[in-house]
Amino acid sequence: MKNNYAPQEPAAPIGFGSAPPQPEPWANPHAGYAPQSHLGFPPQPQSGYQQTRFAPQQGYPQPGYPQHGYPPQYYGEPPGYGSSPPPPPPHPHQPQPQVVVVTNTGWYSRNQRNKPQSNAVGGAGLIFVSGGMNIAWSIGFHGRLYFKASQHNFLAWFIGGIIGAFVSCLLTNKVPKKFILIFSSILVMIGGIILASTRHNGSATLASSYLDGIGNGLIFAPFLALAGEVSVPYMRGLISASIEQMCLGLGIFLQIIYTSAWSDSKYSSFNSENLKGVLSIIYGLLALIIGSLLCIESPVIMLADNNEQGALDALRRLQRPYTLTNETFEQLAEHKRYLAQNKDMSVGQSVCQAIPSFIRVVFLRVLNVLSISGFVVSSFSFFFVNEYGFGDYYGWYCGFAVSRWMGNFIATFCMESAGRKKPTLLGLLVCGVLAFVMAAQYNIFTYNTGNAIMLLVFQFFAGVAFTATSPYLSEAYPLGVKQHFIAFTFMVEMLVFIVIGVCDWSRHGGAIYFYALGGLYIFGFVLSIFVLPETRRMTLREAQDKFNGFISQGF
């Protein structure tokens, strides 16, 4: 029986049997167009015969067709959640920098990693060894001279140093430092050749002193500035102190040791002056080789000349291994900040900021000169001489040399642990007390062993006190006037040497000298507590800020 309530099938349209039924025009006003969404919602599927027999039917999944339904659910973090997008592929023709994370380990590893920094300025250290020998010779540590030596002979090296420092001011950032070092090495070698090839010739000794002094003055300011700019903050104190104060002390040590042990005669074919010339030739030659091969220019100056790629390459070669590391890029960024800070200052502002630093540093450097002047050497000989003459002067002189250099040596390797300020204060206090004691019993006319021993201790603590002046010079002054003020400091030192050199020593004058020395050292100790900054392991920018103004109480 036919069910009258069953839904009736609509009549098929005329035409092909497979054609879908034609909708009424009034029922679909958008006939012939894609289905329109309503209010941003996706179009809903139409019911009826608009679904052709080729489309999958609603309901159970059909094989061979994509499944409809909700998107896949993840219980937890979906894949790739929180991760950075993959880096773009490297350009086939552009080398990619190798980034290595550098970690600070022991002191030996740090020293080996930063060895190229000390090598870059190591040639200047050899020149300073020759300079230390000439300083010791000029203040009285020399063998028996068989020529008529005038006061000019003993002052020539200091005059030459002033000439060289003045010329270096004119060459600031105009001539590469490598060329300055090569020229200075040649001057030192020529002076050594003159001295080694002559005997008992006052004119040759004078010419040699001038050449060596000019060579030392030429490299003093450029290479102390370079030592501060090529070294990392935790190595600057060690590198700058080792190439200047420790090398000058080493030269003084060598000059005292070999001249005290040398037995000269007028007819000797090879005397102590000839040996001094040979050593100068060796120092000059080694400095020439090291400077030509290992000297690296300042990355700060390269950045100032808009040579960023050259600065990056210099920083890469200043640390082992010679690859670009995270630390390399951090140093480049810090040098840019340091350069930007100094570019904002005019010349007048730089000079005004440098004057307080100049007063503090030059005061310490003058005290250093007073601790090893000709008056000190004459007083030392007066302390241990007895009625039989000098006696065992060789042992006393060797003690003087060892004491002075050991103070420099120990303080150099404490620059990044104990810092700059604390060794300076300790040395000033001890030297001031000892100077007063020696002055009080200066005029004892017998064999004064006590004063001689105290003077040895004085020399040790003087070496401790003034080693920090080298890193101070490398970081105290603004970049625009840094080399000029370093050169001015050196010229003031040489002038003090000259002033003391033209004065005649006497017993009464020696006692007054040590009283004045003790007063200056105690005054310097009290003053340094309030005005001397501590710049251990600071960047050049931070150290320069520490020197702003006069008051700096930090330890």
Structural description of this entry:
- With 555 residues, the chain is an all-alpha fold.
- It has a domain at 114-297 and 345-546: Growth Hormone, Chain: A.
- 61% of the residues lie in helices and 0% in strands.
- It has 20 helices and no strands.
- It has helices spanning 107-113, 115-139, 151-170, 177-196, 202-230, 236-243, 245-261, 272-294, 299-304, 308-317, 326-343, 347-371, 374-384, 393-412, 421-440, 449-466, 469-475, 482-501, 507-531, 540-546.
- Helix 3 packs parallel to helix 5 and helix 4 (177-196) packs antiparallel against helix 5.
- The radius of gyration is 40 Å and the shape is globular.
- The N and C termini lie far apart (113 Å).
- Mean pLDDT is 83; it is low at 1-84 and 92-103.
Low-confidence stretches: 1-84, 92-103
Oligomer: single chain
What share of residues are in beta strands?
under 5%
Instruction: Report the sheet with the most strands, covering strand number, pairing sense and barrel closure.
Output: none
Helix-strand sequence: HHHHHHHHHHHHHHHHHHHH
- Tell me the span between the first and last alpha carbons: 113 Å
Query: What is the top-level CATH class of the domain at 114-297 and 345-546?
Result: Mainly Alpha
Q: Looking at the structure, what is the overall shape?
A: globular
Record field, number of beta strands? 0
State the helix count: 20
Structural class: mainly alpha
Write down the CATH topology of the domain at 114-297 and 345-546. Growth Hormone, Chain: A
Task: Assign the CATH superfamily of the domain at 114-297 and 345-546.
Answer: MFS general substrate transporter like domains
CA radius of gyration is 40 Å
Query: Could you tell me the mean pLDDT?
Result: 83
CATH architecture of the domain at 114-297 and 345-546: Up-down Bundle
**Helix content percent band:** 55-70%
